[in-house]
Model the fold of this input.
Amino acid sequence: MAKYQAPKGVSEYFPDRSLYFEYVRNTLIEAARNSGYKLIELPVFEDTELFARGVGESTDVVSKEMYTFEDRGGRSITLRPEGTAGVMRSVIEHNLDRGQLPVKVWYSGAFFRAERPQAGRYRQFYQVGIEAIGLNDPEIDVEVIAIAERAFKTLGLSNYLLEITSLGDADTRGRYTKDLRAFIATLDLDEATVARAELNPLRLFDDKREEIRALMASAPVLLDYLSAESAKHFERVQSGLQALGINYVVNNRMVRGLDYYTETAFEFSHKDLGAQSGIGGGGRYDGLMEQLGGQSLSGIGFGIGVDRTVLACEAEGVPLPQTYFLDLFIVPLSAAAKAAALLLAERLRASGLSVDIAFGDRSLKGGMKAADKSGARFSVVLGDDELSSGNVTLKDMRTGSGEAVTIASLDVHLRSAR
Ligand code: HAM
Done:
């Protein structure tokens, strides 16, 4: 056993699986970039207060799962458990909301929650997220959901489910929680559960215990309380999704794990992933900016779990595209060939191909073994004969067959095989 091991419950990616992770992450990012979202790169730690205010004291994320510590200046710092609060902090701090609206940003990186580790649930995990801030337009809700859906489709996933609901506006929520609280007061609950319900009664729908689930089965549901305006917003979101041919089901008992949600909320889950099946989720958050000291503007976004999306892709057997493999592996056989190999590799790399070389003084056998292990699509052996003739044998590593080509035309051959 190695002397040092990674901390408990973190996910990490090393070759070759890291290529797969990279492909999934890049595909998710590309879906956001080609919809007009621009990168926002934020610190992985923030003042603890930001998450307590933004995400909500009643959530498990804030009350049980934050990595919080005091820095050397005695300030309370927390490793970001999610991305939305930090984005909103940055938007307010840098007045991004004073320009063109909506502000459309994407981010990608590590997030931290001190959860009990299990398959698909990590203490450090990765998300790709987007936020569209500043307009309360149902068509933006549709766009945000469509981006996630398109990203999953582009990856080749099919075995997932999109669930949506509406959590309504402040008026809806006020009338509903009054009735929900009255209902909960009739139940025989333990003290801790009563305390949780006092902070946010909706949390009881999230309770994993069978007996609480059974009690909550007859609770009033929020969708029945939607104000006329919220109902209209939700209808427009649904007709927009239908127009784009996006399949969804309405889940009137969905509870998101973060407190800032209002109006549209959604979750994608994957059917092959077992208990931790949520591959992405998001929704609108109309009070968050004001709550954090900014003006009263709404926003919507999602966070997609890259780790779980990788697991979903593996479960469905999604192949890694050819461009993530090396195009060529060069095996040089002499000192002169080594120098020529570097020149050739750099020329091909500059033209956009990916090329590696067998470094070290290897025998032909050792060099070919390295070529096999490299996962490259093709290999060439470069000896003094090849250098003087200008011809090489381009070996197809899948079939084992070889073709005589000139060194000068290698890039054309490699590109046509992509
Ligand atoms: P969330 O639902 O808490 O939302 O997380 C989004 C996704 O991150 C989940 O669907 C899941 O795939 C992944 N995830 C969460 N926790 C873990 C974990 N412990 N291990 C592995 N993956 C995990 C948010 O974070 C919101 N900020 C999303 C959002 C953006 N809403 C509006 N804008």
